[in-house]
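Input structure tokens:
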């Protein structure tokens, strides 16, 4: 059976500089794992028994980044499902898009992660080594830009 995980692509809007495009003021939160290859990823994790996918995404975000659901605004209309093998087994990861209500909100990492960064799209894609994660970040960014 495929492993199933869910998470949130968290973003914040900085105070826009005069004449800057809104999209230039968006930063994405990536966490660096404290295990394995120390890759960078949005908060995500495995679905617990009896939990629905979105509950998992919010719980994992709280556990891994210290962000409560009440500190986030879920962006309607965006959901991305990724499929890839991990150690020879199929894995499904579902992401939603969520904005922190206060761009100064403190991030509190769990022991699963050793660092975090708020990154503009281009840098976020450099940090996220996997092509499907890069494509997901770009797609989420396009989705946000189309809503402006």
């Amino acid at each position: 059976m495929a492993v199933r995980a869910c998470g949130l692509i968290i973003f914040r809007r900085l105070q826009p500089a005069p004449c800057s495009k809104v999209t230039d003021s968006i930063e994405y939160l990536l966490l660096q794992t404290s295990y394995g290859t120390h890759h960078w990823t949005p908060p995500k994790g495995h679905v617990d028994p009896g939990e629905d996918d979105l509950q998992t995404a919010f719980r994992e975000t709280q556990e891994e980044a210290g962000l409560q659901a009440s500190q986030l605004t879920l962006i309607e209309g965006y959901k991305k499902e990724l499929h890839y093998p991990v150690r020879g087994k199929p894995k499904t990861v579902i992401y939603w898009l969520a904005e922190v209500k206060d761009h100064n909100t403190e991030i509190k990492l769990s022991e699963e992660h050793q660092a975090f960064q708020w990154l503009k799209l281009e840098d976020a894609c450099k940090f996220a080594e996997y092509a499907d994660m890069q494509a997901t970040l770009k797609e989420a960014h396009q989705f946000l830009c189309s809503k402006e």
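The CA atoms of residues 121 and 138 lie 7 Å apart. Helices lie at 53-65, 121-127, 131-147.
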